[in-house]
Amino acid sequence: MQRFFRENRTRIISALVIFVLLIVCFANAGDGEIEEAITDSKRYKSTTEWMQEIDDDTSISAISIPGTHDSAAVHIFPGFALKTQSMSIADQLTNGFRYLDIRLAVESDKDGDYLGFVHSVGKCRVKGSIFSSQMRLDGVLDQIYAFLKAHPSETVLFCVKDENSKDDSREFEQLLFKSINQNRNSWYLYDSIPKLSSVRGKIVLLRRFNDSLNYGNVGLDFTWKDQGSKESVDLPYVMSSLNGTDKLWVQDRYRYTVGQKKDVFLDMLRNVAPDDNTFTLNFLSTAGDGSIGNPKGNAEILNDILLTTDLASQTAYGTIVVDFGTRQIAQHIYMSNFANADE
Fold it and tell me: In the chain, how many H helices and how many E strands?
């Protein structure tokens, strides 16, 4: 035995080092939440029911809505590059977020195929252990249904992307609607921007996948052009048609530096106004321009910029999407829908 260890000492030490690094990297995917300041709750609408006081006749596009990017990437390896949130999806809803960025892929186990949560090459897991099971679509939907049942004044925007380009698009759509059809009355699946009255207590499907099965009612078409270039451009956001009438403006420069991202984010806040027929998505999230992404380090800077940016009262800024969302960030965004207490 001693001879074996002597002869293989280098290999054994290397294997142990790699194993420890794997454990450390994955453990980092579940801790280190960005601290949020204590806020005066009397100044804010309830995080669980802030939509309650918005008029029924308001289009969901004409509301300032807090959202999270890669919403399920809480427990994921490697955490440094792929972790984008510190709160579970259930906690995000409780803390005021209403737009969820859902990345799914077709997965398999002994019981068959299912849709599991992923971020790029990483699988989003239920708990902060490398041995924890992968998050599944049905489990997260149950959490959302429970939230909406408890808070029927609210709606959840559910933006679904098939993250794996190798997936069979027909199977992906079939699995997705197998889950949706189990509780179809809780969904808004049409291709027109709805009024809030039509979607209270429901999930609004936003589609970033092909309707390969020609189901027809498969939600609003949110298949915007990829914005992964690192180069600065004169027009940093892109417009597409939702249904021939309504428009979608998106700023998602996810490979920009923090400085570039700050500029394009604020530029869109100033220059692209959402309204009844114009939906806007303004991503504050970025992996950065390095070979390895650093979402958390970038979010610590960019989220502070958002919190120190004055948002006018009774003004719609559309949907603002962040990494490492906190209650304070959600409140800062959604309170722009209302008059200031001092006004």
Answer: 10, 12
